């Protein structure tokens, strides 16, 4: 009996410590998000005032907090380009392209100072590849010309029918 009570107390204290750890982790995650947002705010102010060195430093900081944020990655590439750092701008643009994303960097004024560098040109090309279609497209269904406040969509795989619920006309299109 004493052994069972000891295991139960251990399990309760262990689960309580896990709950505390998760609370601390959630709190620190929230801090990471706010710290990244603060860095981006400071970067925006630096960009607006023309302080490109500070723009880059703040975007590096934001990317340390949120390395998975695609917009922050793009701003970091722009910050490198604004500072004439073609190699790092190209590296970040290649990372964005490897994730299958497209950003119109070739058309942006921020990248014009480094646009002639071969690495940057290659990054622009890698991004453009992500705009190309992959495979054949087959239209499974098209929406009716009338209606417009689509509330829900359901697919009947057995009957191969699409049901569209129209809130505006209060009916279901089949």
Any overview of this molecule?
The protein is mainly alpha-helical. The chain folds into two domains: 128 residues, Serine Threonine Protein Phosphatase 5, Tetratricopeptide repeat, CATH 1.25.40; 29 residues, no CATH class. It is built from five helices and three strands; from the N terminus they run H-H-H-H-H-E-E-E. Strands 1-2-3 form a three-stranded antiparallel β-sheet, with no helix packed on it. A hairpin with a 4-residue loop joins strand 2 and strand 3. The longest helix is centred in the first third of the chain and has 48 residues. The radius of gyration is 26 Å and the shape is elongated. The N terminus is likely disordered.
What's the total helix number?
Answer: 5
Strand content: 5-15%
Amount of helix: 55-70%
Number of domains: 2
Distance between the termini: 65 Å
What's the β-strand tally? 3
Whole-number radius of gyration? 26 Å
Query: What's the architecture of the largest domain in CATH terms?
Result: Alpha Horseshoe
CATH class of the largest domain: Mainly Alpha
Mean pLDDT: 82
CATH fold-level topology of the largest domain: Serine Threonine Protein Phosphatase 5, Tetratricopeptide repeat
Based on the model shown, name its key terms:
Serine Threonine Protein Phosphatase 5, Tetratricopeptide repeat, three-stranded antiparallel β-sheet, 5 helices, mainly alpha, 174 residues, 2 domains, disordered N terminus, 3 strands
């Amino acid at each position: 009996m004493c052994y069972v009570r000891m295991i139960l107390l251990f399990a309760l204290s262990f689960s309580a410590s896990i709950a505390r750890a998760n609370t601390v982790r959630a709190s620190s995650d929230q801090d990471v998000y706010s710290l990244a947002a603060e860095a981006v705010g400071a970067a925006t102010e630096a960009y607006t005032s023309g302080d490109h060195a500070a723009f880059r430093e703040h975007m590096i900081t934001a990317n340390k907090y949120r390395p998975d944020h695609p917009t922050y990655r793009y701003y970091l590439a722009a910050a490198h380009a604004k500072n004439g750092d073609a190699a790092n701008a190209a590296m970040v643009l290649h990372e964005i392209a490897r994730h299958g994303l497209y950003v119109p960097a070739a058309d942006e004024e921020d990248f014009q100072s480094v646009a002639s560098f071969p690495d940057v040109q290659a990054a622009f090309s890698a991004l453009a590849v992500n705009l190309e279609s992959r495979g054949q497209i087959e239209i499974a269904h098209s929406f009716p010309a009338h209606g417009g406040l689509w509330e829900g969509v359901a697919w009947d795989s057995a009957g191969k029918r699409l049901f569209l619920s129209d809130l505006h006309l209060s009916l279901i299109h089949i």
